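dumping this here before i forget
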Amino acid sequence: MKNIQEHHMYVIDDKYFDRFKDPEMMWNKEEKRPYYYALKVKNQEDLYFLVPATSQVEKYQRIMKSRTANDKRNDLFHILKIGGRDNVLLLNKMIPVPAKYIKRAYTMNNIPLKVVRNQDIEEVNRKAKRIVNLTKSDQKIPYQPDIKKLLSEISKDLQQEKPISKENLESKKEPTTDRPKKESPNHGQSPKI
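structure:
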């Protein structure tokens, strides 16, 4: 999908879940689960961290209350209104998704949904960045998909794709080999998170 906008809700293609498997990923509900675009993956074109949403607010309010009672942080979830309805963003279930697997905007009455309250946007971004940083330092987050493994698999998947440029299609000339090709700084490496 093109024109992916921050703070909007999206639907992920089931092909993503067929291609990249992790037992901790949320069930996609046959492409009906909404995902929030939280962060762009650093140094990678068209790769985004998306956060699944759920309407099971009471369940997560109980979990958050329990975590607070046990002096644990509540950065794993965020309760907010999306399209006038209470939802929970499950930041511990955040996953990296290439744009080609983002199927469409999540809509209500054909209107794309987005998070509009600045306080929610700032809080979700803070929590998402914290989770990414914890993942970088190999700290395990409860029920979190293996983000590093997913990024590695996605990187391999994206490297196997060889886009054909318009110039190569239209040109009848053989490419010159006088100059060595520059290697990408990320060649052979997983995307940075």
